[in-house]
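RECORD TYPE: inverse folding
INPUT: C-alpha cells
STRUCTURE:
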C-alpha cells in the first residue's frame, strides 16, 4: 500500500503515521519529494491489519494499493519524478547530466588528464573502473583501492562527482568511502545480496540492466535498493545480448519511455557498452537525449588504442568535445538544460 501524506505536516504527525503502520504489522519505506512525503507500506494484507483506516487521519492525503510486483520503484508509489543530488548536480532534474571517463583507471596521469578534459567539455560526473569484471580471468581486473584513491584525487582537483563499480559485498564500505555513486554492473544486476550491501551504504546506486534481463526483472532488482532504506536509485540501460553481432550489444532505447512510464527513478543510457563501437556513440547519445533519458554514461580515453580494457568503444578527448557540442541542440529540443 502507498500512503501519501499531506504537504507541510509536522515531524510529529509523520512519526505518528509511521508508528501506526508498524503497529498494523507493515514495514514503512519513506520517499520524500519536494512537496509531499510518500510512504510505501510493505506487508501481507491477508495477515495484517487494514491500512485503509489511515485515510481518515488528518495527516494523510491518500491511501492506495499498488498493483505492480515492484512496489516502491513504481509510478503508483511516487507519481512525480525522483531526483538524485550528486555534489549539487540533480540527476533526473531539469539539467541533463553527463558522466564520462575511462573504462578502467590505469594511471594517475591518464585519469587526471581525462577528468580535466571531460569537465572542460561539460561533464559533471567522472566515471572510472577501479574493479573490473572481465570475462577472462587473465584480463586486467582493475587497480582496486589504488584506483579508488586516484578517483578521489581527481574529484579533489576537478570537483567532479565520482561513479565506480562495486563487485563484491566485501568491498562495499571501501568503495562507498571513495565514490559518490555506486554502480552495479550488468553481470551483477541480480546479485541480490550485493544490491542489499550497496543500498545499505546509503550512497546513490546506478543499476545496470543485465545481459538478458527482462524489464520487469530489472525493476524488481531495483526494488531491492529502495526496500533497503535507500531512495537514491537510478536505472542504466547498457545494451542486451541478442543474435546481432554487428554491435557488441543491442542498445534498447525503448527502455527510456518504458522506465519513465513504469518508474519514478531516473534513467541513464550507456552508449559505449551498448554499441561497443566508438563510431556509433554519438548517434546513440543523440537518440537517448531525444527520447527523454536523464543522463549519459560515456567512456572516454586519451588514447583508446592503448587502453587496458575496451579500447574500441572509448571516444577520444577530442571526440568527446565534439560529441558534447553536437548534443546541445538535442538537449534543448528535449526541454532540458
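DESIGNED SEQUENCE:
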Amino acid at each position: 500500500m502507498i500512503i501519501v501524506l499531506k504537504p507541510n505536516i509536522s515531524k510529529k504527525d509523520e512519526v505518528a503515521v509511521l508508528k501506526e503502520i508498524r503497529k498494523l504489522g507493515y514495514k514503512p519505506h519513506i520517499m520524500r519529494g519536494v512537496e509531499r512525503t510518500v510512504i510505501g507500506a510493505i506487508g501481507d494484507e491477508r495477515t495484517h491489519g487494514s491500512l485503509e483506516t489511515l485515510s481518515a487521519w488528518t495527516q494523510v492525503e491518500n491511501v492506495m494499493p499498488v498493483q505492480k510486483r515492484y512496489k516502491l520503484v513504481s509510478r503508483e508509489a511516487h507519481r512525480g519524478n525522483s531526483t538524485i543530488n550528486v555534489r549539487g548536480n540533480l540527476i533526473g532534474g531539469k539539467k541533463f547530466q553527463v558522466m564520462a571517463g575511462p573504462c578502467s583507471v590505469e594511471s594517475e596521469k591518464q585519469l587526471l588528464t581525462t577528468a580535466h578534459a571531460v569537465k572542460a567539455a561539460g561533464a559533471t560526473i567522472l566515471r572510472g573502473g577501479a574493479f573490473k569484471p572481465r570475462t577472462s580471468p587473465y584480463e586486467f581486473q582493475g587497480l582496486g583501492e589504488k584506483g579508488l584513491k586516484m578517483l578521489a584525487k581527481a574529484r579533489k582537483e576537478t570537483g567532479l562527482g565520482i561513479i565506480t563499480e562495486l563487485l563484491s559485498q566485501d568491498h562495499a564500505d571501501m568503495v562507498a568511502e571513495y565514490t559518490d555513486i555506486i554502480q552495479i554492473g550488468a553481470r551483477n544486476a541480480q546479485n541480490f545480496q550485493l544490491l542489499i550491501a550497496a543500498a545499505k551504504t546509503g550512497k546513490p546506486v546506478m543499476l545496470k540492466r543485465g545481459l538478458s534481463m527482462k524489464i520487469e526483472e530489472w525493476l524488481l532488482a531495483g526494488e531491492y535498493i529502495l526496500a533497503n532504506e535507500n531512495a537514491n536509485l537510478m536505472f542504466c540501460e547498457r545494451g542486451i545480448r541478442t543474435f546481432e553481432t554487428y554491435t557488441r550489444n543491442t542498445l534498447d532505447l525503448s527502455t527510456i519511455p518504458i522506465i519513465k512510464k513504469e518508474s519514478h527513478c531516473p534513467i541513464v543510457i550507456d552508449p559505449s557498452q551498448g554499441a561497443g563501437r566508438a563510431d556509433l556513440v554519438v548517434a546513440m547519445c543523440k537518440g537517448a537525449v531525444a527520447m527523454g533519458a536523464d543522463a549519459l554514461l560515456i567512456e572516454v580515453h586519451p588514447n583508446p588504442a592503448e587502453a587496458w580494457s575496451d579500447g574500441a568503444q572509448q571516444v577520444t578527448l577530442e571526440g568527446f568535445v565534439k560529441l558534447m557540442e553536437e548534443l546541445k541542440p538535442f538537449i534543448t529540443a528535449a526541454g532540458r538544460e
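NOTES: Residues 317-333 form the longest helix (17 residues).
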